[in-house]
Amino acid sequence: MTQPSRTRGLFVVLDGVDGCGKSTQAARLCDALRAEGHDPLHVREPGSTRVGEALRAVLLSREHDLSPRVETLLFAAARAQMLAELVEPALATGRHVVCERFHPSTFAYQAVAGGLPERDVLELLERWAGTPRPDLEILLVLTPEEAARRRPRAGDRIEDKGLEFQRAVARGYARYRDLVASAVGIDAARDADAVARDVLARFRERAARGGA
Could you tell me the fold of the domain covering 11-210? Predict the structure, then answer.
């Protein structure tokens, strides 16, 4: 007798400028999903695999002066490893995946703020780290000025680049929302509870459309 197919999980990304609350909201969403009986996989990007964490250390270390092109390639490599090793297997067994950072970050930081051609970056990410695709990309919208106030100090090489760079990054996220249908913005200037309610509502809307 043929066994019924397992419902595939949803792949959700939380992204935005440094200090927008990605980690807080990713944890809150996972907690809400667990309360509903799910077993979500929470990952961060770059990272979560041994390869990804090693590349993360290189990318964020102040010891290295990396060009935007090299950064893009390393981010894509870490992402491809995470997708193959963690994300796809989890989705296939019906688990939802909540990921901090993904393609929107690379587009905003390396393409728009870093000066690389937008089309080239998007095509590279699609070709080498494009499967599985996120079902929903939530961009937490916060001004770079407010995000800087929330961060006590610069924490890594990329955060060291300063406020003007972060303003360009914010423009990159806005541009990404214009280009990518799966990307939606949520006002992150409000208290964490209000943001968490909106994040969960967006997840539920997407789950209802996808039958998850």
Answer: Rossmann fold (3.40.50)
Q: How far apart are CA 14 and CA 133, in angstroms?
A: 14
Asked if 29 and 115 count as a contact pair (C-beta separation under 8 A), the reply is no
Determine how β-strand 183-187 pairs with β-strand 136-141: parallel
Strand pairing partners for 99?
13, 43
Q: In the chain, where are the structural domains located? A: 11-210
Reported as a single tens digit per residue, the pLDDT across 186-200 is: 999 999 999 999 999
CB 42 within 8 A of CB 33: no
Distance from C-alpha of 71 to C-alpha of 1, rounded to nearest angstrom: 50
Tens of pLDDT, residue by residue over 20-69, are: 999 999 999 999 999 999 999 999 999 999 999 999 999 999 999 999 99
DSSP state of 139: E
SS3 call for 95: coil
